[in-house]
């Protein structure tokens, strides 16, 4: 009886167990935490089944695990029984299924979702969205490139879902979209409270070559380098540093682009207001060279007031050199104020005007007629350039080199570096020219030789050479050449060989050329002149007297 009852009871229990619905593998079931040990939570999922899950699977993004004995949790049932006789369960998979449902709703409603960046992958990062893993592209991390994402790792923060595909398990999120939206709202609020001309405090956020970005409390403004100070600022880092708090004035607000222009110098008095009074024309002041260019040098007279010394106003003597070879940056120099244009904020300065004009100094020391001594600096096709006192040059023209030689021949006697003596013949201070003469210090033998001789004069010369084309003659040491055609009135007597070296002959002066230092002489012209004179005195061509009769009478009268 007892055995039969026991069998019946067993059959009833077995039947009851079959009637109970056994949960399907691959579904989410509810379980109760019955113990926590060795970093794991032991969960009773019912149906006389227990399973283990690592505590880390119960951690929310960016938070520590939160699980206690007695808590009811949803888990994912992978297998009803594993090798250890336990149910194989996963909180992470349960959360993933739960998360996908939640994320699909948020994506459809374009709502933000919370997550935490937990890993780095090629092209970006992985984000835990409370059970589902999403991809965060590198370009979507921040509004500006992020060099170090370390501080962002593991921190719970909002994201915007850009794209998701449950079938492929693909989710793409953006942190940048959240920042831009928040930034836009904040910018609009801050800009709405700003007015042009307002003075505000700001923190230097970034420094570039052209200026600095200043955080005005959620919105950035640009402080351009030209608006930092009235003086020249070569680089913003000269007067600003990142993190520094500064006072700035709002110069301009662009409502459409939300761009804000800031200024610091506007909070200081403008030094240009007193420039004309402080720096009268022709006054001399000390300044500091701040910048050197190809066309001149900028000199700071005081903070915020700079003037330009044009290259043409830098030196009396150095005309074609770079300004950097005359002055250097930071050098203190004396300058003269030449012109002021307050409207354009320009001051024209002169460096050479603070020194005496070397041409004026020269003419005081060496008036016309004075003798100088100098070194030949250059030789050109038209003369010599001689170095003089005051780093200036004087020129000896070809025609002023020698009395006896042509300029082209005389210049061959000189070399660069030769020291020569010359006479000052002209000084033009305005044109900066000095004319010199070497031959003026020598004796003018030609002028002395022809003194008193005029064109048409009859002079006696001595034959020094007989050549085929004519004869060379000497008159007071000056050589002249009489061509064959000028040797006689008669063609038959135009023979050079009928003359002898040492013979003396009367000739007529046909030309005196001081430039070439030559006398034009002719025997033929003398004979024609004598004939004409005889005809005028003793007869005429229509009197019937022959030329022989006239010449005979002339000779007789002469006797």
Strand residues, percent: 35-45%
* Spatial strand order of the main sheet: 3-2-1-4-5
Low-confidence stretches: none
Largest sheet: 5 strands, antiparallel
Task: Pick out its properties.
5-stranded antiparallel sheet; 30 strands; rod-shaped; repeat; 30S ribosomal protein S1; ribonucleoprotein; NA-bd_OB-fold; S1_domain
Q: What do you see in this structure?
A:
There is one protein chain. The protein has 559 residues and is α+β, with helices and mostly antiparallel strands. Helices cover 18% and strands 39% of the residues. The chain is built from nine helices and 30 strands. The chain has helices spanning 2-19, 91-108, 176-192, 275-278, 358-365, 407-410, 445-449, 523-538, 547-558; strands at residues 27-37, 40-46, 49-54, 72-79, 88-90, 112-121, 124-128, 133-137, 156-165, 170-174, 199-207, 211-215, 220-224, 245-254, 259-263, 284-293, 296-302, 305-310, 332-341, 346-350, 371-380, 383-388, 392-397, 419-428, 433-437, 458-467, 470-475, 478-483, 504-513, 518-522. It has a five-stranded antiparallel beta sheet with strand order 3-2-1-4-5. The longest helix has 18 residues, at 2-19. The radius of gyration is 57 Å and the shape is rod-shaped. The mean pLDDT is 82.
